[in-house]
Structures are given as structure tokens and as C-alpha cells.
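F.,

This is the one I mentioned.
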């Protein structure tokens, strides 16, 4: 079942269960998918899974950053809504790797590329980003690569 079908089914279920907050997050996902279907990334109205995953990660990141801003402005009520939506959206992402697993994969990439210093960071990040797409946050990967190459 495609992500769009899964979301549509979950929207129906959330409506039946009267889960207003969940429904709001699911509709945000559906909106993003519909926009993707009309973008240049879609081929005959079909969006590749990698693009869907990247979009969901972007939605989660946006909500987490917004929640941080709300906390800084002492608006915990609004931050809670954003964090709840981020959690709902994360359910549709592939399982994220632990820090140890990411470090292991980055070590493999560094060895494969033959990187020895920070000048090689671009090559390492290029390979690591492809290898860990959808499984780890690029910011986390970047921090690990910097630490290992310095």
C-alpha cells in the first residue's frame, strides 16, 4: 500500500475516532503528498518513495523547530501541538538508526572513500547522505563526520 493510501485510510480512521489533533497532522501529510504529485519530482503523478521520505522528514523538522521557538516564547501549549504533530508524522518514516549505528556506517564510508582529514568531508557526506537517506538526520550525520575527521 502506498503512503498516500495509508494516509487516506488513517484519515478516515481518525475521523471516525474523532481524533482532531491526529487528523490535523494527517491532513498536513496528505497536503504535502498532493503538492509532490504536481511537482517536477513526480513521474506521471507517482512520487518516488525517497522523495516522500525526504518530505516527511522536512515536515517533522519544521514542527520540531517551531516547537523550539514556541518554548523560547513561553508558549508551551503551542509547542505541545507541534510536537504531537511531529510524532504523528514520524510514524510514517522508516525506523531511524541509533547514534552507534550511524557512527558505524560513517566509519564504513570514511574507509571506502579513503578520507583522512576535513578536506574530504564533502566526499564523505555525499556518500553518507545517500547511504543513510531516510534513516538518519543529515545534521546528526554531519556532526559525526566532523568529529571523526578532525
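My design for it:
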Amino acid at each position: 500500500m502506498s503512503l498516500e493510501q495509508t494516509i487516506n485510510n488513517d484519515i478516515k480512521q481518525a475521523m471516525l475516532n474523532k481524533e482532531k489533533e491526529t487528523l490535523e497532522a494527517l491532513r498536513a501529510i496528505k497536503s504535502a503528498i498532493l503538492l509532490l504529485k504536481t511537482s517536477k519530482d513526480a513521474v506521471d503523478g507517482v512520487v518516488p518513495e525517497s522523495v516522500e521520505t525526504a518530505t516527511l522528514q522536512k515536515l517533522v523538522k519544521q514542527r520540531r523547530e517551531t516547537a523550539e521557538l514556541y518554548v523560547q516564547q513561553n508558549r508551551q501549549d503551542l509547542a505541545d501541538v507541534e510536537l504531537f504533530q511531529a510524532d504523528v508524522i514520524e510514524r510514517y518514516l522508516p525506523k531511524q538508526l541509533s547514534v552507534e549505528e550511524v557512527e558505524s556506517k560513517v566509519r564504513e564510508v570514511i574507509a571506502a572513500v579513503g578520507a583522512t582529514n576535513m578536506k574530504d568531508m564533502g566526499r564523505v557526506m555525499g556518500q553518507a547522505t545517500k547511504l543513510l537517506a531516510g534513516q538518519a538526520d543529515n545534521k546528526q550525520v554531519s556532526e559525526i563526520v566532523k568529529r571523526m575527521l578532525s
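DSSP finds seven helices and no strands in the chain.

Talk soon.
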